[in-house]
């Protein structure tokens, strides 16, 4: 019953017109007035921002803010995989041989997430990580490894909530939402960085140039709270035994090796 009501509410509110209204307001100069309240409600760390609070031209400008140089330290260790975002690490688990993962008790198809069985085959038996970004987080996405981009593509048209309620009551949000997939080759294998759009604003902007990324280099940003799913090939990621989920992480922190 709860699941049905939740989905009905989302379907009624997640329409093109509502998304467009929110987008227009967030990008307008009028939205500057809500920036101080937004920063206070979400407890934004003002000391690490690139600019002062009143220098941002709109709520959108503030939302996609950059950080001061040195605000995040990325390790130079070649074997370490770092978090690509400031987020909450919501789930970790195996990619089953039938191209499925189970997140918050719900089964997702990796083949559907990536768009084909052929794309999913590389990650059968591998490992997935789900990183959720709330409105309070820094929303730029950085490379978790040093490597070469071998393919990048976009799927989906609409987006549904990717927070805890969305993962619990939504319908295949991680596999159906608007999403941009970046597949990379690095020293120990291949990984997919799946950037999943959030409700209302399907905006994932790619900012990197060329096909080579250094670990910690900026690759894209979200225009609203969202999720990153990392997919690793079999036997290419070793995780620490001390992880306790959900776990807050910062961009550049070690996730595994």
UniProtKB/TrEMBL annotation:
Record NCBIfam families: PRK03140.1 (NF002853), PS_decarb (TIGR00163)
UniProt keywords, alphabetically: Cell membrane, Decarboxylase, Lipid biosynthesis, Lipid metabolism, Lyase, Membrane, Phospholipid biosynthesis, Phospholipid metabolism, Pyruvate, Zymogen
Site description Cleavage (non-hydrolytic), residues in chain: 225-226
Recorded GO MF terms: phosphatidylserine decarboxylase activity
Topology class, membrane: Peripheral membrane protein
Subunit structure: Heterodimer of a large membrane-associated beta subunit and a small pyruvoyl-containing alpha subunit.
Active site feature: 86 (charge relay system), 142 (charge relay system), 226 (schiff-base intermediate with substrate), 226 (charge relay system)
Enzyme class: lyase
InterPro entries attached to this UniProt entry: PS_Dcarbxylase, PSD-B, PSD_type1_pro
EC number: 4.1.1.65
A Pfam family this chain is assigned to: PS_Dcarbxylase
Pyruvic acid (Ser) PTM positions: 226
Protein name: Phosphatidylserine decarboxylase proenzyme
GO process annotations (BP): phosphatidylethanolamine biosynthetic process
Name of the coding gene: psd
